[in-house]
Write a structure and sequence with these properties.
The protein is an alpha/beta fold. It has two domains: about 280 residues, Aldehyde Dehydrogenase, Chain A, domain 1, CATH 3.40.605.10; about 190 residues, Aldehyde Dehydrogenase, Chain A, domain 2. The chain is about 40% helix and about 20% strand. It has 17 helices and 24 strands. The protein has a seven-stranded mixed β-sheet with strand order 14-17-18-13-12-20-21, sandwiched between helices. Strands 9-8-7-10-11-23 form a six-stranded mixed β-sheet, with helices on both faces. Strands 1-5-4 form a three-stranded mixed β-sheet. Helix 4 runs antiparallel to helix 6, helix 5 packs across helix 6 and helix 6 packs parallel to helix 7. The chain is globular. The termini are far apart. Bound molecules: adenosine-5'-diphosphate. The site of adenosine-5'-diphosphate (ADP) has 17 residues, from helix 9 and helix 10.
Length: about 500
Amino acid sequence: MTAEKHNISDQANQFLNRTHKLFIGGQWVEAQSGQTFDVVNPATGQVISKVARGGSGDVDLAVKAARKAFEGPWSKMTSSERGKLIWKLGDLLEQHLTEFAELETMDNGKPLAVAKFADVPLAVDMFRYMAGWTTKIEGSTIPVSVPTAPGGEFLSYTHREPVGVVGQIIPWNFPLLMAAWKLAPALAAGCTVILKPAEETPVTALRLAELVQEAGFPEGVVNIITGFGEETGAPLAAHMDVDKIAFTGSTEVGRLIVQAAGTSNLKKLTLELGGKSPNIIFPDANLKAAIAGAASGIFFNQGQCCCAGSRLYVHQDIFDEVIEGVSARAKKIRVGHGLDPQAQMGPLVSHDQLARVCNFLEEGAKEGAVAKAGGKRIGDSGYFVEPTVLVDTKANMKVVQEEIFGPVVVAMPFTDVDEIAATANDSIYGLAAGIWTQNISMAHKLARRIRAGSVWVNCYNVFDASLPFGGYKQSGWGREMGKEVLNNYLEVKAVTTQL
Ligand code: ADP
């Protein structure tokens, strides 16, 4: 562990010191219950802020505000005006980059350098990328034959319209970035939004709401409701006047959202769920790069990435060498308070996550897994876990099958490409995969066989606003980012006129 330092800017400090309200219809309002809940710094376990504890009545008000904005000023704006507002939000965010990074570190625990280098700039980029799309959402003119109307002349075209009022429920691993991934395309498509941040990490979404106000979005276009999953997320998912839910989180809660949609108004859904992604290293790979990529593929963000390369498959000829390399890297990672400039890895987000990850480590050990690096909690204050490399793991073990969502990789040898193609797909998930080899033809052939939404060759965790991201199988429905995501926020209308 590195030493702790806790200096953040006055702006960030002042923001944390406030008790935050809900952002509904352009106003800051208390929860109807009058209740708040504590936000905790996972590096210390200390309370850093207080936020409103939303409930179903608040959700209802937010949906009404979003509906009013959708039917009012927002739909009357030109796409160019909409694009300008989204671009401005990106600009404002960039102007406050350090403050947002500090808030994210205090709330989520991640190292400040990571928040500054990845989370905030990627969020800015997402708003800018999507701002450009507002003016490029087009339908098409379709030549129709209409066999039932011989001799008839028709003009048919499609028109793409926003889905409407969208509930967005996001997780705690990249709080600001997930808000940007969700808000930017919804706004670009012309939807209005009720965003529910995770209860563990509500801070940056609330600060972003202030920038939404400053940018000049009409009231009710973006509403932010803080609260617990069952108390705010569930009523949002079950609401009869919400047209769509976009959810990122656990597969378990994803199922609840499907049920809520099914028993309410059959609202549209997109789901970005869990993963247990294979990272595959062939003997001809550039081993230095592959070892570094295997380590960062799992340890980035404390392993709290749905696409983490959590199943490491190494060809048997190089298995020992690679495991030694990845373990050496794991042992060198400096774990500490995210504000400590020396820290390369922060704490897990919460006590619950700490308990969950430690439980996996214990179960793994019981089933015979051996830790080549790490394997346990660090200290007894804050939620820190050692970067861990497990070997002697078997396909049927819990640590191999289930998503741990912590800095724990399971490593196993393989012998040939057919075997590894089958093993890579031996999962209920299909979010991402990594392939390390110099044989590019083989890599592309293998990429085709792997049932996952993202495949990285000789790299890992490469994201871009223009690249679609999402899951096969139980990793989810639909895609985020790129032009693909816009389809999830648009309805297509076919208009036909007899001439
Ligand atoms: P994790 O298990 O990693 O904390 P969750 O899937 O529980 O992830 O949480 C992701 C988001 O889903 C959070 O914003 C959380 O509040 C929300 N959530 C949790 N339970 C429900 C639910 N029953 N209905 C809707 N949203 C929920």
